[in-house]
Design brief:
Largest sheet: 2 strands, parallel
Strand content: 15-25%
Strand order of the largest sheet: 1-2
Amino acid sequence: MRLLAICGSLQQRSSNLTLLHRAAALAPADVEFVLYDGFAPCSPS
């Protein structure tokens, strides 16, 4: 199974992003956990 995870926060230390990283680390071996980071170039300066 492949899961795409998208975090709505652009903050590097957001609790949502931390939760997604933890979920990826705990995912079973047969689960591919893809964390989308394509919003990073859109972040405000």
